[in-house]
Amino acid sequence: DSGVTQTPKHLITATGQRVTLRCSPRSGDLSVYWYQQSLDQGLQFLIQYYNGEERAKGNILERFSAQQFPDLHSELNLSSLELGDSALYFCASSLGTYRQETQYFGPGTRLLVL
Amino acid sequence: DAKTTQPNSMESNEEEPVHLPCNHSTISGTDYIHWYRQLPSQGPEYVIHGLTSNVNNRMASLAIAEDRKSSTLILHRATLRDAAVYYCILHGVNNNAGNMLTFGGGTRLMVKP
Question: To bridge A87 with a disulfide, which of A38, A47, B34, B72 should be the other Cys (CB 3.0-4.6 Å)?
Fold first, then answer.
């Protein structure tokens, strides 16, 4: 158990819909990361928050947005969903922003868009 | 981050040592070498990391070449539970100030009983 929790575990929805994925980081961790894992693209970084502020953006679509709340949990919002958004979405957390820090990953949310 | 090259897959027998290679010929002097693994149906998990010297922890050892252009993750006695995809990741200074991980294709390790 990494200490990172993600809800829900599974999500099935239709094209055009909007969903929210939730992540609670390990106690004491200030950085939260979101990654997407699809069969054709592998594991890709989407976005990082540190202590409530956006720190870095990766290959995140404009239809996707995220935020980190004062209690440090984070939500990833996916809107106008397309079939290609079906993937595993992982949240990870780390203490801060140093490159030698370990990132702890949650169990993921499996999203299926029909 | 600089690129890494790993074999797509490797096979090992249970209870034997496994050496997982990683080439990173364009590594810079400040890049950390991280290894993560992903067990089936789970999120990635940290294995080990190093900068210049060899490193040991309870899970594995990391051997780093003197010129740092390659490294090897060593599992001393493979178990069935070690069957996973192993990712070698270089973690350097990012212009956008984030410290995200950049995953490649990894090596799928299969362990035979």
Answer: A38
